[in-house]
Amino acid sequence: MNTRTMLRTTATLTAFAAALALTGCASPGYGVGSPAAASYPSAPQPAYASGYGVVDAIEMINAPQSGIGPGTVIGGIVGGILGNQVGGGTGNTVATVAGAVGGAVAGNQIEKRTNQQTAYNVRLRMNDRSYQTVTQSSIGDLRVGDRVRLENGQIYRY
């Protein structure tokens, strides 16, 4: 292996490592210290009243999954390989890093659209005539009209 090939391999591996480190930046964060956290207050957690009621409606919703998955990693690898085919010298390194980051972002977005988790919004008409909406990942054999007990955000038939 000559020096030029060795330098090119080292630059490619460095760019790939940098792209993997940057894939965490692919999805917007609203955590502590982010600009979004300063401008948007955190959403309050719903306060569920405990009590008894009747299931008024059940609505199925699709909730996109978050985080870094295999789509992000594969997109970064493919983008880095394609970017490595462009130019030479410093331009090649820049193209490799840009391809890896762009591929990771694209892979993350594709994965979010294809891997959605099914959840259910269950609206309850409580005995005190108030309404509560609870989101659950599974409803089991729960049906509209069932009498239920709501306790700590969980619905139980009775």
Describe how the helices and strands are arranged.
Blueprint: H1 3-22, H2 35-39, E1 51-64, H3 70-84, H4 90-114, E2 116-126, E3 131-136, E4 147-151, E5 154-157
Describe the 3D structure:
The chain has about 160 residues and is an alpha+beta fold. The protein contains 4 helices and 5 strands, in the order ααβααββββ. It has helices at about 5-20, 35-40, 70-85, 90-115, and strands at about 50-65, 115-125, 130-135, 145-150, 155. Strands 3-2-1-4-5 form a 5-stranded antiparallel β-sheet. The protein is rod-shaped and about 80 Å long.
Q: Tell me what portion of residues adopts beta-strand conformation.
A: 25-35%
Task: Name the helix and strand elements from N-terminus to C-terminus, one letter apiece.
Answer: HHEHHEEEE
Which structural class should the secondary elements be placed in?
A: alpha+beta
Mean pLDDT comes to: 75
What percentage of residues falls in helices of 4 or more residues? 40-55%
Shape: rod-shaped
- Which strand order does the major sheet show? 3-2-1-4-5
Q: Report the sheet with the most strands, covering strand number, pairing sense and barrel closure.
A: 5 strands, antiparallel
Distance between the terminal alpha carbons, to the nearest Å? Answer: 74 Å
Number of E strands: 5
Number of helices: 4
- Unreliable residue stretches: 29-43
- Rg, please? 24 Å
